């Protein structure tokens, strides 16, 4: 940023510890008095206000308070007749500020830099001795003002670095560059203070640069002060400046817009170690705003700030020094020059007297007047407005004859320096303004306070009836000029019209000022704002551009129709809106027809009936989505909902949904938005059956069109209330299962222990203890399966029940395979020996020779079970009876194909084992009764086959929903299978052992030898005759099978007698 900062000359002054300086921001007019003829000399009582008065009073205060310096920042004056008529025009400001009073700068708003575009010559104001201070504006090099605009004014006498931020009067938002400009300038001032040594450097780089390149010996501390000419309150402005790294020492809002500050009371704002003073007040042409600043020694800050405002009209005689008299005398000379410079701006017919000097006759407050027509026509022409108006009390003077119209006549008619004010208002507020005017005005030539309410208009035809009651309203008709139709047409209530009036009405004339500013809230309306254009100048320009004589006449712009008693009433209230058909718009103050608000879509997650169990408090969710397809928000409200339905809190309820579900507040669905509503059905108090209910959701406006209602949404809900859930659990019958399991386990353990105790007994040895113990182990494992089979979700969790499903399968399968492997091994050994005996072959079958098939069966089962457990194990699940969802039963099932295949493979393996064992038992059916264990094993196997052939089809045919019968059937299959095997094998064995007297094998050898000899004789005789008896061979074969039960010598003898010719083989 290329800133023209007008660098200081580094001459320090005023270093006292309690040094006081004065700051005055002046709005005083150039001349004292109202017009050019006022203030003829210093003693003239009409010398009120003015810059000469302000300068004299500031000198007196400087002397009284011993101020070391006074900074006066005057506002550029363009509105006084003096600047309008003086030959120098606006340039006369420099003549007064610099040449007469010796001031060092002046202030203006941003529009001033564009004044050249309006055709005005302001070259006389361009001076480096009197620069224009605007900190947030930089003129381009091609701009004539580029060398005469300051961003910072370094005041040598006071050490104040003064900045000034401004904006256009019509600006609504803060320019993006204002804040950044302020911060950049504050940083620059801080750098200057660093270079002067006032502030210590914070970085080695800064210290090096200052030591190397700064040759100044001045230790002055420049104190940053910001003057604000902003016209709209900025909420963050003070915060942004205060939190800046280098805040200003003082911020002065001389437009009084900072609402966070008390008007006229300096406040010290702090932020940590940073602080700044802030002052807000409303400036004016008659205000003497003295700001007293006490400098803090050696720092760019103020110890104290005081604000002492005075009214310039209270200027004391003691302040009228010689300089004041001299200044008034010089101003008088220049005022006379302005009076002599009275150019002709146009021609007109005769204008009558507007107001007598005694103010007893006021023509323009009685109705339409010629002066009002001229000035309102001029303002309407200058702003291209739809209509213009002005209060009737503004017009003064005796009028003027037909002929030339001079500038002085315009100022004599309106002796007030009022700018043109423009804005935009609706037909409704135009009606309010004109209705107030005709209802509150007296329409009398007498000068009264109420008479000032009568307005003069241009572009309007206002018809009223003074016989109507003012409280009701006297306005009966209101029309506005339509250039397209070339006629006056009735105003439209919500149409926006551009208006023009004077600045007094926009700012100060109550109640018109509120009607033109704060009350303009209808969309499209713009509050009135001042233009840099005096209404006298606008009228002069209007007459100059007419190119014809202006005819002063009455045109019926204000017409009193005493025959029309029908007052015009454009007001509406919310009570006037038809319920449900129209809605009230507060912003437009109007009833509008409701739009179609039925365009909302309801999507249900499922149309199926909700199913629940009677008497249970569990909630069943019902989800519905409402989608707003309108381009405005809609309000949904639950108008009716059954008691058994409520909003679900499963996914959390926002406070809005809580109030919506409670029926206290509606739920607003924005345009394009949606409401996901989850309703929970409580079946606790419902009786079994089908319940149909309707949730009525009222659809209305969501705030844009209050009072408008749609047709509503009907959410049909159907509930199928089931009887209390029947779980069909095992209940107490599981005790039978546990008892049977205990019986089997006790039997298996008991017989196993008996075998171990009696393992040396002949009968036990004959049956092989290893075989018997293995058989008991298998039965023990298989019987253990009844325990997990007796578990369901009544006493364990569903996960534990699933584990029990697979555990039962493991126990049954492994128990079966172990038992059957032992049976098969025993039968296979018997049949092998018998077969070889028949063929006269000597063979010895050892135990390990038959362990292979046994191991194969067990390992096959183990592999299949392990694979099944990992791939797709059985799981405990509940199924419902078809058509009876409340009636459920638990079962173990596999869900995937892999599980079914593995289960089928396991059944197939064990079926093959059963079939093979049955075949071996069939083959051993003719074994000698003396060694009848083979037949007993066969009977056990055939018992298993019978149980399987009968039990499994019956189990398959049973109703799976009858869990008790199914469970009992499975108990019976396992129990009878296990016990049949134990009983067939062990009961005869125990009985035989007990009847044999418990003789061991050694004590029974002679008897066995005798029996052997008988059998040997039989065998030999049969052999010689060529005939054999299979039963006779059986005993010998079995002795070979059980050769380990006898001593080796006995076995050898027996084998030799059976096979006499094989002793040498």
TrEMBL record:
The chain crosses the membrane at residues 735-757, 769-787, 807-825, 850-871, 900-922, 934-956, 968-991. GO terms for cellular component: G protein-coupled receptor heterodimeric complex. Keywords: G-protein coupled receptor, Glycoprotein, Membrane, Receptor, Transducer, Transmembrane, Transmembrane helix. One of its GO terms (biological process) is nucleotide catabolic process. The keyword Transmembrane helix applies. Residues 1002-1027, 1053-1065 have a biased composition (Polar residues). It comes from the Eukaryota. One of its GO terms (molecular function) is G protein-coupled GABA receptor activity. Pfam families: 5_nucleotid_C (PF02872), 7tm_3 (PF00003). Signal peptide: none annotated. Residues 1002-1029, 1045-1065 are annotated as: Disordered. InterPro entries: 5'-Nucleotdase_C (IPR008334), 5'-Nucleotdase_C_sf (IPR036907), GPCR3_GABA-B (IPR002455), GPCR_3_C (IPR017978). It is found in: Membrane. Residues 802-991 form the G-protein coupled receptors family 3 profile domain. It is a multi-pass membrane protein. PANTHER family: G-PROTEIN COUPLED RECEPTOR 156-RELATED (PTHR10519:SF20), GABA-B RECEPTOR (PTHR10519). This is G-protein coupled receptors family 3 profile domain-containing protein.
């Amino acid at each position: 940023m290329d800133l023209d900062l007008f660098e200081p000359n580094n001459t320090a002054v005023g270093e006292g510890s309690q040094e006081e300086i004065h700051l005055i921001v002046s709005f005083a007019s150039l001349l004292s008095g109202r017009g050019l003829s006022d203030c003829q000399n210093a003693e003239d009582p009409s010398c009120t206000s003015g810059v000469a008065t302000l300068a004299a009073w500031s000198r007196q205060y400087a002397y009284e308070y011993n101020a070391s310096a006074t900074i006066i920042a005057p506002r550029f004056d363009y509105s006084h007749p003096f600047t309008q008529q003086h030959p120098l025009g606006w340039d006369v400001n420099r003549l007064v500020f610099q040449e007469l009073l010796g001031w060092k700068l002046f202030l203006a708003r941003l529009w001033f830099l564009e004044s050249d575009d309006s055709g005005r010559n302001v070259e006389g104001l361009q001076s480096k001795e009197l620069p224009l201070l605007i900190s947030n504006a930089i003129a381009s090099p091609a701009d004539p003002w580029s060398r005469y605009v300051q961003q910072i004014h370094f005041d040598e006498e006071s050490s104040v670095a003064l900045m000034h931020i401004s904006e256009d009067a019509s600006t609504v938002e803060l320019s993006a560059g204002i804040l950044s400009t302020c911060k950049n300038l504050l940083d620059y001032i801080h750098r200057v203070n660093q270079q002067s040594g006032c502030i210590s450097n914070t970085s080695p780089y800064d210290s090096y640069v200052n030591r190397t390149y700064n040759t100044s010996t001045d230790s002055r501390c420049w104190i940053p002060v910001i003057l604000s000419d902003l016209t709209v309150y900025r909420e963050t402005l003070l915060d942004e400046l205060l939190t800046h790294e280098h805040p200003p020492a003082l911020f002065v809002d001389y437009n009084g817009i900072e609402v966070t500050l008390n008007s006229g009371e300096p406040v010290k704002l702090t932020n940590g170690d940073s602080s700044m003073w802030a002052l807000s007040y409303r400036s004016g042409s008659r205000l003497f705003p003295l700001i007293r600043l006490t400098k803090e020694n050696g720092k760019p800050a103020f110890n104290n700030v005081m604000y002492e405002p005075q009214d310039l009209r209270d200027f004391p005689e003691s302040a009228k020094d010689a300089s004041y008299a001299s200044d008034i005398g010089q101003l008088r000379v220049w005022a006379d020059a302005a009076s002599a410079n009275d150019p002709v701006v146009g021609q007109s017919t005769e204008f009558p007297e507007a107001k007598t000097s005694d103010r007893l006759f006021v023509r323009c407050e009685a109705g339409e007047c010629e002066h009002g027509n001229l000035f309102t026509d001029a303002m309407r022409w200058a702003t291209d407005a739809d209509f213009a108006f002005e209060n009737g009390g503004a017009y003064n003077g005796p009028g003027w004859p037909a002929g030339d119209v001079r500038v002085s006549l315009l100022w004599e008619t309106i002796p007030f320096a009022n700018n043109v004010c423009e804005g935009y208002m609706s037909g409704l507020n135009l009606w309010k303004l004109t209705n107030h005017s005709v209802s509150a005005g007296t329409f009398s030539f007498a000068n009264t306070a109420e008479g000032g309410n009568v307005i003069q208009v241009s572009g309007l035809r206002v018809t009223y009836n003074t016989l109507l009651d003012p409280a009701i309203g006297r306005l009966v008709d209101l029309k506005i000029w339509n250039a397209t139709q070339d006629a006056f047409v009735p105003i439209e209530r919500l149409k926006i019209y551009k208006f023009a009036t004077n600045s007094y009405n926009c700012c100060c004339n109550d109640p018109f000022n509120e009607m033109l500013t704060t009350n303009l809230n209808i969309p499209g309306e713009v509050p009135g704002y001042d233009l840099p254009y005096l209404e006298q100048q606008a009228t002069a320009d209007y007459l100059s551009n007419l190119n014809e004589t202006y005819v002063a006449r009455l045109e019926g712009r204000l017409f009193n129709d005493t025959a029309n008693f029908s007052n015009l009433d454009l007001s509406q209230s919310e009570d006037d809106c038809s319920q449900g058909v129209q809605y009230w718009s507060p912003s437009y103050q109007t009833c509008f027809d409701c739009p179609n608000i039925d365009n909302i879509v309801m999507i249900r997650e499922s149309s199926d009936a909700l199913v629940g169990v009677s008497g249970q408090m569990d909630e069943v969710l019902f989800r519905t989505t409402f989608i707003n397809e309108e381009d405005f928000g809609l309000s949904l409200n639950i108008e009716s909902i059954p008691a058994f339905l409520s909003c679900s809190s499963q996914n959390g309820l926002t406070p809005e949904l809580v109030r919506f579900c409670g029926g206290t507040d509606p739920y607003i669905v924005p345009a394009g938005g949606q409401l996901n509503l989850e309703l929970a059905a409580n079946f606790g108090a419902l009786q079994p059956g089908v319940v149909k209910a309707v949730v009525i959701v009222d659809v209305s406006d969501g705030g844009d069109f209050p009072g408008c209602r749609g047709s509503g949404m009907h959410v049909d809900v159907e509930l199928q209330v089931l009887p209390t859930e029947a779980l069909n659990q095992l209940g107490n019958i599981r005790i039978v299962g546990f008892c049977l399991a205990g019986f089997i386990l006790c039997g298996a353990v008991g017989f196993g222990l008996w075998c171990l105790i009696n393992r040396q007994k002949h009968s036990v040895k004959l049956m092989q203890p290893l075989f018997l113990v293995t058989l008991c182990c298998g039965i023990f494992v298989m019987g253990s399966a009844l325990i997990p089979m007796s578990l369901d979700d009544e006493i364990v969790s569903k996960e534990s029940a699933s584990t029990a499903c697979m555990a039962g399968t493991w126990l049954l399968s492994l128990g079966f395979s172990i038992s059957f492997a032992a049976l098969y091994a025993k039968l296979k050994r018997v049949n092998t020996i018998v077969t070889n005996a028949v063929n006269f072959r000597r063979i010895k079958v050892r135990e390990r020779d038959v362990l292979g098939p046994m191991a194969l069966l067990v390992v096959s089962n183990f592999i299949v079970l392990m694979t099944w457990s990992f791939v797709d194990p059985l799981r405990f699940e509940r199924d419902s009876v078809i058509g009876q969802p409340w009636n459920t039963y638990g079962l173990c099932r596999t869900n995937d194909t892999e599980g079914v295949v593995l289960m089928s493979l396991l059944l197939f393996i064990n079926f093959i084992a059963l079939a093979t064992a049955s075949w071996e038992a069939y083959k051993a059916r003719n074994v000698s009764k003396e060694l009848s264990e083979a037949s007993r094993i066969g009977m056990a196997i055939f018992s298993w086959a019978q149980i399987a052939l009968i039990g499994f089809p019956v189990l398959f045919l049973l109703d799976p929903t009858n869990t008790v019968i199914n469970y009992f059937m499975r108990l019976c299959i396992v129990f009878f299978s296990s016990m049949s095997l134990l009983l067939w094998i062990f009961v005869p064995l125990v009985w035989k052992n007990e009847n044999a007297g418990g003789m061991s094998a050694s004590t029974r050898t002679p008897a066995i030898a005798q029996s052997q000899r008988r059998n040997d004789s039989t065998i030999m005789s049969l052999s010689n005759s060529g005939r054999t008896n299979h039963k006779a061979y059986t005993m010998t074969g079995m002795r070979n099978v059980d050769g380990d039960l006898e001593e080796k010598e006995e076995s050898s003898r027996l084998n030799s007698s059976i096979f006499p010719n094989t002793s040498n083989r």
